[in-house]
Amino acid sequence: MPRAEAGTPKWLANKMKAKGLQKLRWYCQMCQKQCRDENGFKCHRMSEGHQRMMQTFIQSPGKFLDAFSREFEEGFMKLMRTKYSRQRVLANTVYCEFISDKNHIHMNSTIWVTLSGFCQYLGRTGKCKIDHTEKGWYVEYIDQEKIKREQELEAKRAYELTEEERQKAEIAERVEKAQAAGLYREAEYTELMREDPDEKIAFKMPEVRLKAEKTEEGEEGAPGPSKPRNLFAELAKQRRAEKAQNNGTVGASSNANGHGEGIVDVSGPDASASASASASFSGQLDRRADEKDKRKLSALERLRLENEERKLKKVKTETNSTPTPAPAPASAVKQEDVEEETWLSEGLVVKVVLKDLAGGKYYKKKGKVTNVPKPFTGDIRMLDSGDVLRLDETHLETVIPNVGGRVRIVKGVHRGEEGVLKAVHLEQFCATVETAAGVREGMQYEQVCKLMADE
Ligand SMILES: [Zn+2]
């Protein structure tokens, strides 16, 4: 029968008939040819092309069967994974969906003879959960990939767990060994004991040494002052020495490498850092106890001491200058805090700067210091009136004489020197004084005061 020409009614009829589902048993998978009836299929089987295809099939039937079966399964499972995932569905429904694609792999070319056989295969291989009812086989997709992922995760977790346990066991074993050797000391919580509350708290972590340093360390004994010490090694060595002294034998686990890892054994390469840190801390405490005598003073402590010393010295000078020291007036104490030394001394000419005294009668008037009964207080005889006032030095000011006048330096390093005023520099508010010891330049006004010769 010649093929109908495209566009003719016959061609259209053939197309329409081919559209629907057709009998599986008249489909030839090798030639991918669907026949519409028994006669047509018979004719196809007799055809030369089919014969040739069958020859190739016979040569390796397994290969073709496997390939077709795999393709069929893949197509079916693709539907299960996408459209029918997470639901229990009649296998026939999926199958109908699958074969609606006309170019699907037909089941008669697979290793499965019937759909139920295929279902059972799926159930057996764990690809689907299957159950049989009156209606037929139901299938439910099992996400093998998800299960696989979960299994992998589980395995990983289990591995980590065992790894952790292994490490713990290893540490425990080392602790036991060290305990047996008498080298291990349990880390315990104690109060922080401080000799001096101002001292800094320092933590020293055990340093990681390079191999080159190790050989150097082999000499033992005295690590250089700049080199960080291995407290562990020292502690371990000390313990070992004690032990040897006590029972005449050296500790069981003496270290061959001389690096002194006696206790460090516990904190081996993969042990937790906390164990070593705590042990190191106890070592630090030991060290501190050793050095408590020669420990340095903290900055704060030093300052306080210096301050006390200074005060002590001052009291001494005061008692020297005044044979009967009376309690200083409040204002004098205040002055003491700001200025350390009094500038007032006998023979100076000073200016009164106390406004309130006697209605301002003495304000800005000059007087001569005739007596200093105690530090910071002077008896002033006023130049004009001859009145004598006892005043605190805070109410007095120095007087700068004319150039050539006699002055005394009353403050600073040259305090007490007497000489002649050589110049006054008004812009810089300072003066130059020539004394027996030399020329003093840049003297502040309050450092220099006029002197009056005794009458
Ligand atoms: Zn064929």
TrEMBL record:
Biased composition (Low complexity): 271-280
GO molecular function: double-stranded DNA binding; zinc ion binding
Stretches with biased composition (Polar residues): 244-257
Pfam families reported for this sequence: C2H2-zf_KIN17, KN17_SH3, SH3_KIN17_C, WH_KIN17
Gene3D superfamilies referenced in this protein's UniProt entry, alphabetically: 2.30.30.140, 2.30.30.30, DNA/RNA-binding protein Kin17, conserved domain (1.10.10.2030)
Biased composition (Basic and acidic residues): 285-317
Domain of life: Eukaryota
InterPro entries: C2H2-Znf_KIN17 (IPR056767), DNA/RNA-bd_Kin17_WH-like_dom (IPR019447), KIN17-like (IPR037321), KIN17_WH-like_sf (IPR038254), KN17_SH3 (IPR041330), KOW_KIN17 (IPR041995), Rib_uL2_dom2 (IPR014722), Znf_C2H2_sf (IPR036236)
Keywords carried by this UniProt record: Metal-binding, Zinc, Zinc-finger
Region called Disordered, residue ranges: 239-337
GO process annotations (BP): DNA damage response; DNA replication
Residue span(s) of domain DNA/RNA-binding protein Kin17 WH-like: 52-176
One GO CC term, this protein: nucleus
Similarity comment: Belongs to the KIN17 family.
Name of the protein: DNA/RNA-binding protein Kin17 WH-like domain-containing protein
